[in-house]
Amino acid sequence: MTSSSAAPAAVAAPARSSKICFNPLCKDPKSDSARRRGWRLRSGDYAELCDRCYFTYEQGSFCETFHSDAAGWRNCEACAKRVHCGCIISAHAYVLLDAGGVDCIACARKSFAMAPSQMWSSSLPLPQQISERKDTHVKNWKSPTAPFPGYWRQAANLWNASSVQSDLQQRLAYEFDRPNNGEKLFQVYRSSVAAQEKKYEDPSERITSNSLKQIVRERFVNGNISLDPSFSYTISHREGNPKGLQDPNNLAGETDTMSLRKGVIVDPCLTTSSGANLDRHPNSAASSLPSSILDEDSSSSIGLATAFSSLDGAKDSIRIASTQMQRQGALPSISKQIYSHNAADSEMQAQVSNGRPRLDAQTRAQLLPRYWPRITNQELQQISGDSKSIITPLFEKMLSASDAGKIGRLVLPKKCAEAYFPIISQPEGLPLKVQDASGKDWVFQFRFWPNNNSRMYVLEGVTPCIQSMQLQAGDTVTFSRIDPEGKLVMGFRKASGISSGEQDTQNLKFSNGLLMPLEGNSRNLTEDSNPNIPLCPTKESIESRYPANPAEKATSSKFDKGGFIQKDGLAARSLQGSSKRKGSSLGTSSKRLRIENKDSMELKLTWEEAQQLLRPPPSHVPSTVIIEGHEFEEYEEAPVLGKRTYFIPDKAGDIHQWAQCEDCSKWRKLPEDALLPYRWTCSDNTWDTERSSCSASQELSLEQLAELIPTKTGGSKRSKVKVESQNVGASNGLDTLANLAILGEGEALATTFPQTTTKHPRHRPGCSCIVCIQPPSGKGPKHKQTCTCNVCLTVKRRFKTLMLRREKRQSEKEAEVARKQQEQQQKIINLLPEEVGKRSSLANSSSSNFPEKTSTNNNGAPHGVPEHRKTTSPFKAEIDLNFQPEQEEEPSPKLDARGMMRLLRDTPT
DNA sequence: TTATTGCATGGCT
DNA sequence: AAGCCATGCAATA
Prior knowledge:
This protein is α+β, with helices and mostly antiparallel strands. The chain is built from 29 helices and 24 strands.
């Protein structure tokens, strides 16, 4: 429906009072005929037609009769029937096709019935029959005298923009009818309206309309919903009650909320932005309007919670969540919000059943990946505590120092706020009731500040809640919505991934931004070999984890699914209380995760580097996908953090893999292709049954091993590091260190990068630090996130060197490295130490990264392999070359080149 | 003086 | 390059 030139009738409304027939093209209205109500006008009134015009309208031939010369005629793609697409009257007579063109409503319905999952980009509510069009949403237009004049004012403006009107209305109608596809449609809608958005900058102006409710009701009444009986809707309707709350405990105002809920629905998170033209804010990625709005500007907050059970008693599975969708800015925000949670969509259901994220892909795509909710269905179920509740994860946010600070203001991502929170037109915003995971209700002030022609949304008064959850910067809060109540639920996830109290139900893990069921609880994640790796994810790593496009997902799925992402809060805590602005911000991006302190950089890890630590899951059966010419192996299961091993050729030139038992620290020789879990022990030595027990002696003496295993080289350029390294138990290589750090599922390294690393006491008898008290098995106490023990510090250092090494490696050609290595091997023996140093610098500027002491187990107890300050590997020359006492430890170039390459080859890419 | 509020700044995406 | 958003900070209580 448009008010374009093709719809003269619509624009002639003002004159209707003086005319017998509303239709200006009616040249011969019967003066004695009774006025009949035709289509609904935007004003909320109806076009009053003379008998003849009404008849043509009723028969669906109005356009043919009066608009035959108007623009907008097209042919149905299916039946070639001529269809008018250019006026308010014909608005419901056709459906826009994805591929372009239109289908007449009849053909569209046929298609729809045959392929219910098909996405309709059309404007018209499929279910809506032409015969019922007089009851279309057009009816729902509120008159200027409606309860929400402010909205109307905006609406009028909006709809006078003819170009927008048609599109919006059509889409609105569409969404109502196709809740399952509503979101998809809305995407289209959004884009199409985006340009219009700017035209209506005054957020305070909104459109109000009852149309949604009516439309929905009508649609249901029409029974057209039956086209897709699996639709699930929940209609929340708070009408005329600015402070209405669906929650019986609502703080303010009453609500006439009637949650219509028939049957249990699994909300696929498909929040539909229905009501597009009327109510939706174009930016609302997913219209879920919390019904927990306590109070909106009284003029604007219209919560709707109307049950339609009576309307479609036979369609138990149908429900519509209608709430207010907010949108500041452009589109008129309407007084009603509609959430369409369609569980009917088989695809979505499949997702749910698979434990996939409940967030609609397109909706989610509207948000930055960092805000994608990562919560499992199971967890959601726990949150709801009621199997009949529909939990819709909305978004999550890692708490910044500011968020977690005493100021009590939680900055909300703009898009999230606009998509999921109620519309607020005034900076003061409105109280928002949020329930935490424990069921406790909190009331925050949801408001915004004007900011650079935009808005900055915040939740004020979150301090008590944050404190009650014991959250800190770096932890993540998640926002979900429970339907049909429409309540907002705020969960949280500690940065460590370890839950405390209710966090057990909040402990999350995600994959590709999708919600995945945890393969194990946090304990498992901690004590099992599930790696949760990435310590301080870089931008690349994060993007890999939260790919915005499917192609990217493939490359990272193997990682994501492993749930190693648990550590999303790494380094965050150090931000707490950060007084420095630059570089202290928290976020999911590497830069935002970075710590001010140089030391904080040590944990920075690139995605590629992280991969070097990964091993295919034990039962890996990768599927290969090719993306942009690159082949990727995709694993269903999470990768594991493999044990650090060393590939060392024997005298015959055969390469063997050497690994150290986690329990006894004995070194075992393994096949080159052996893939070891990070907590590998002698008992796992299936390749050498004679040495499959810790009681078995080592194949080689410590001295021999010392020559083979490049456990460490030089000292640290920083005395403290050096000293610490001397006392660190488990510093036998990156993997071991990383494993140690990850023992506590992140707690070890933690998201915390202490501003200083000098406070932790050195290990000594009686030391109760995590390193000292943790048994070799790795069980028992875990590193705290704030742990500044040697192990954790060492891990950080190692990660830093990893990063540096990575950069260097990228710039070095493998061939050249090999050549140099050969040359060096030939010459090194005769080189003086100084020359070695020079060569080393040239060949590999990265410093040795191995701690002073090697061969220690995880608990820090010194073990087997004696300390070697310089040459400890078969690649003695190379190691010597890289030995730079004044720099941080770094594996020798050759070892690095070969070992890491092998690692790369042996590990999933 | 301290806490709160609201806006401005600027790093980062 | 625009917009987001973490944080600083002045104004105010």
